[in-house]
Automatic annotation (TrEMBL):
PANTHER family: TRANS-ACONITATE 2-METHYLTRANSFERASE, TRANS-ACONITATE 2-METHYLTRANSFERASE-RELATED. It holds the Pfam family Methyltransf_25. One of its GO terms (biological process) is methylation. GO terms for molecular function: trans-aconitate 2-methyltransferase activity. It comes from the Eukaryota. It comes from Karstenula rhodostoma CBS 690.94. Residues 44-134 form the Methyltransferase domain. Keywords: Methyltransferase, Transferase. This is S-adenosyl-L-methionine-dependent methyltransferase.
C-alpha cells in the first residue's frame, strides 16, 4: 500500500544551519525593493517567513515598518517570534492569506511550494491588493533540474530499494499529480511577467545562480533536509529505510558535485526573482 504524504515537519534549527547562505537572496531582493518605498513606516508582509531571518532583514532595511511575518509552520513561527520581537507573526496558508492595504508584499523561497495551478493566481491576488505604488517582491528557487532535486526523484524511484514501498503510487515527476513529493517546476520568467503586467507600472524578472562552498556532499544533504527533501523523508515510515535512502542520495551527490582542491564542494543554487510595482 502506498504511503500517504504528510505535511513537512519543518525544523528551524535544520533550516538555519545555512542561515548566512540562505539569506543572501533576501538582501539582494531587498536592495531592489528600497528605491520603490517612499514612506518611513511602510506596511510590510513577509510571506513564508520561516524562522524570521528574512523578517529581521526587512526590519533592518526599513526600521519604521509595520511588519507581519506569515508561515504555515508553528515551529518556524515560534522561532521567528523569539528572534524578531518587533514584528508580528501569523500562521497562514500562502494560497489564501490576506494582506490588506500593504506597501510591500515580500516572499523569500516560499511560492515554489505552491502547485503551478495555484501559484500565478495567488501572486496576482497579492499584487492586486497592494496600495498604488506598492511592491510585490518574490524570490523562488529555480532548481527543478539541478542535480540536488533530480537525484531526489531518481533515488526515490529506485525499484527494490529498502524505501521503495513508501513511494508506490507516488507518481514522482508527474506534474499532473498534486500529491507527489516533488515540487512543480517554476514557470518561465515570461509567465511571471504576463501574470502581473496588467496591473503593473513595472515588472522586473531576473535569475541569479549562487555558488555556495560547502564541506562535502553530506553538507548538501543537510542543506536540502531543511527544505526540498522534507516531503520525501516524511513518506518513509521506517528509520532504517530512511537512513538507507539518505546514504544512497549522498553517494550520488558526491558523484554529481566533485571535490574542489581543498576537499570542499560547490553547490550551485539558481533563484528566480520578481519585483513588480503596482500602478
Amino acid at each position: 500500500m502506498a504511503a500517504q504524504p504528510q505535511k513537512p515537519d519543518w525544523s528551524a534549527t535544520q533550516y538555519l544551519k545555512f542561515a548566512t547562505e540562505r539569506t543572501l537572496a533576501v538582501h539582494d531582493l531587498i536592495a531592489r525593493v528600497r528605491p520603490h518605498v517612499h514612506t518611513a513606516s511602510p506596511r510590510i508582509y513577509d510571506l513564508g517567513c520561516g524562522p524570521g531571518n528574512s523578517t529581521a532583514a526587512l526590519l533592518a532595511a526599513f526600521p519604521g515598518a509595520r511588519t507581519t511575518g506569515m508561515d504555515s509552520s508553528g515551529a518556524m513561527l515560534s522561532r521567528a517570534t523569539a528572534a524578531v520581537p518587533k514584528a508580528a507573526f501569523e500562521e497562514g496558508d500562502l494560497a489564501t492569506f490576506d494582506t490588506p492595504a500593504a506597501d510591500v508584499v515580500f516572499s523569500n523561497a516560499a511560492f515554489h511550494w505552491l502547485r503551478s495551478a495555484q501559484r500565478m493566481p495567488a501572486l496576482q491576488r497579492y499584487f492586486r491588493a497592494l496600495r498604488r505604488g506598492g511592491v510585490l517582491a518574490v524570490q523562488v528557487p529555480d532548481n527543478y533540474d539541478a542535480a540536488t532535486h533530480r537525484l531526489m526523484r531518481e533515488v526515490a524511484g529506485l525499484r527494490g530499494a529498502a524505501w521503495a514501498s513508501f513511494f508506490e503510487g507516488a507518481n514522482i515527476g508527474d506534474v499532473g499529480d498534486a500529491r507527489r513529493p516533488d515540487l512543480d517546476p517554476v514557470e518561465a520568467p515570461g509567465v511571471f511577467y504576463d501574470a502581473l503586467v496588467p496591473w503593473a507600472g513595472s515588472v522586473h524578472v531576473w535569475r541569479t545562480e549562487y555558488y555556495h562552498v560547502l564541506e562535502d556532499a553530506g553538507a548538501i544533504v543537510e542543506w536540502v533536509k531543511g527544505t526540498g527533501l522534507q516531503p520525501y523523508l516524511q513518506r518513509i515510515g521506517d528509520e532504517g529505510a530512511k537512513e538507507a535512502f539518505l546514504e544512497e542520495y549522498e553517494r550520488r551527490l558526491a558523484e554529481a558535485y566533485p571535490e574542489l582542491k581543498d576537499g570542499k564542494v560547490l553547490l550551485g543554487y539558481p533563484r528566480l526573482f520578481v519585483v513588480a510595482v503596482r500602478k
